[in-house]
């Protein structure tokens, strides 16, 4: 997702590794790579998988996640 947190249908949605209270991902190093959500790919499907005229506006305020790679991988 391009968001750190998203609200869909009145429910807060986040990726599992961000909300894991049992710390199951403690041994993982996360590489944060923003990508458009399922809505963008639904539109891609509707256009018969032709992305020639499809664009994603990365400057939208909802894109609050940023690309991050740890120093040691």
UniProtKB/TrEMBL annotation:
UniProt-listed InterPro entries: MTMR14
Organism domain of life: Eukaryota
Gene Ontology molecular function: any one: phosphatidylinositol-3-phosphate phosphatase activity
Protein name, entry field: Uncharacterized protein
Taxon lineage: Eukaryota, Metazoa, Spiralia, Gnathifera, Rotifera
């Amino acid at each position: 997702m391009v968001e750190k947190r998203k609200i869909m249908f009145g429910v807060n949605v986040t990726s599992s590794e961000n909300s894991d209270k049992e710390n199951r991902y403690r041994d993982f190093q996360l590489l944060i790579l923003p990508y458009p959500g399922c809505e963008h790919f639904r539109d891609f499907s509707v256009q018969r998988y032709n992305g020639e005229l499809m664009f994603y506006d990365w400057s939208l305020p909802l894109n609050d996640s940023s690309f991050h790679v740890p120093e040691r991988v």
